[in-house]
Inverse folding.
């Protein structure tokens, strides 16, 4: 039988949770979708969009998480997953296996993605470089 007591119903409208800075990366803006509160910290879902051009990128890191997906809604982003360049475009879904070393190094000015991670309070851990990173695409002036 389905347990309906562990989570809450949630309905978040755009005006309820505006995009804000102060998230994991200062060159992105984040919009909380209320899922962490509704699931009592089991899952977080947020929208992430480009705020500033990619200069340094995210750096090499991994997440201490059980589950993570990125669904690209607009634009595109280029990631290194281990030693593989991966272009993620609007409509693509990426499942980042637990512990995969990665680096988001390039993205379009209109990039926006949905990220869903479990648990909500996942940790990000910097790791040693895996390989060289390609140069980002300059944004139009």
């Amino acid at each position: 039988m389905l347990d309906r007591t562990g989570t809450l119903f949630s309905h978040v409208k755009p005006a309820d949770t505006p995009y804000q800075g102060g998230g994991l990366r200062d060159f992105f803006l984040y919009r909380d979708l209320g899922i962490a509160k509704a699931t009592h910290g089991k899952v977080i879902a947020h929208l992430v969009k480009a705020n500033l051009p990619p200069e340094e990128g995210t750096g090499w890191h991994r997440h201490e998480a059980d589950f993570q997906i990125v669904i690209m809604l607009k634009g595109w982003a280029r990631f290194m997953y281990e030693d593989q360049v991966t272009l993620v475009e609007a409509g693509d879904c990426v499942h980042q296996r637990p512990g995969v070393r990665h680096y988001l190094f390039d993205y379009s000015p209109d990039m926006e993605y949905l990220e869903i991670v479990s648990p909500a309070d996942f940790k990000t851990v910097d790791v040693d470089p895996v390989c060289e990173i390609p140069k980002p695409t300059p944004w139009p002036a």
Notes: Residues 35-38 form the longest helix (4 residues).
